[in-house]
Amino acid sequence: MCANVYDIVKAEKLTPDVTRLEIAAPHIAKKAMAGQFVMLTVDEHGERIPLTMADFSPENGTITIAALEIGKTTKKLGTLKAGDSLFSLVGPLGLPTELKNHGTVVCVGGGIGLALMYPVVRALKQAGNQMISIIGAKTKDLLIYEDEIEDVSDELHVCTDDGSKGHHGFVSDVLQKLIDDKRDINVVYAVGPIIMMKVIANLTKPYNIHTVVSLNPIMVDGTGMCGSCRVIIDGETKFGCVDGPEFDGHKVDFENLTARNRRYLAEEEVSLRNFKEAG
Ligand code: FAD
Ligand code: FES
Ligand code: MG
């Protein structure tokens, strides 16, 4: 590997709105574990944003991220090509996924959450678990990481909102069916939109199935200093960046998280409009 640190080694579009970048970062790649994230800045005028590592290769000295282009920074990230470089990259951050043999684990993911879910399924499989994966997207063309997740799962269920592939409906329908079928499930892991994680946590609670969710509060420093990422867990304040991002889904105050994640909407809209107008 002859790339400089933070150079983009490979850039590709997984869907029209999802960019995957492989980045030279040997110091991060050698320590990275499933469930951890990085904070990156695209250019010297940019903001820091957190992105989960969708993969990491200590051998190649690279990490991989997949970003859904929803605002100014992720859209800017989506313009990068192989040979470009990032202004800054810090990691690995956050606590890794707890890797132990629980027995049977059901991993449930949706949308961009599928990129985040892949290393978790792989690591839990390596830890000896029986892995059942349930993956969903609005339509089949937006299903990402399907082959990768299938390769590391014992069982894969695909769902689409429009019925274009697999089950016509939601990932929660399939999880409910597994529970109704009396499948032996020790742990559920959910990663995706907040509403999806909340639905999954509410679904498993009456059955007392331990459920882990990966939270995405707004982060600024990512190292426990600014307080931006505070979340309420079992009535207590925790910091998503250092106490998480994974938490017990039955203890999360999802309403608080949803409200806090909307607190800069007006500024984000202006920023995106200015970025688009600047071409
Ligand atoms: P903006 O228009 O600025 O914001 C759009 C929305 O994104 C906001 O309303 C807010 O809810 C959220 N957001 C904005 N700024 C931040 C911030 N600094 N930190 C967190 N959320 C923010 N997205 C991916 O596409 N792929 C990932 O792998 C991924 N991993 C994440 C891991 C963690 C631990 C966290 C906390 C978030 C992760 N996200 C991931 C979400 C990602 O950070 C935001 O989508 C991104 O910061 C939006 O930036 P923007 O400027 O493009 O959009
Ligand atoms: Fe600043 Fe977590 S992002 S404390
Ligand atoms: Mg932004």
| Rg of Cα set | 18 Å
> What structural class should be given to the helix and strand makeup?
alpha/beta
Would you count the extended β strands for me? 15
Distance between the termini: 34 Å
Proportion of residues in β-strands: 25-35%
- CATH class category of the largest domain: Alpha Beta
Which fold does the CATH topology of the largest domain refer to? Answer: Rossmann fold
Query: If you average the pLDDT, what whole number results?
Result: 95
Strands of the widest sheet, in order across it, are 10-9-8-7-11-12-15
- Ranges where pLDDT stays below 50 over 5 or more residues in a row are none
| Biggest sheet record | 7 strands, mixed
- Total domains, how many? 2
Count of helical stretches: 9
Provide an overview of this structure.
The protein has 279 residues and is an alpha/beta fold. The chain has two domains: 6-93, Translation factors (Elongation Factor Tu (Ef-tu), domain 3); 104-261, Rossmann fold. The protein is 27% helix and 31% strand. Helix 5 packs parallel to helix 6 (194-204). The protein binds flavin-adenine dinucleotide, FE2/S2 (inorganic) cluster and magnesium ion. The site of FE2/S2 (inorganic) cluster (FES) has 13 residues, from helix 7.
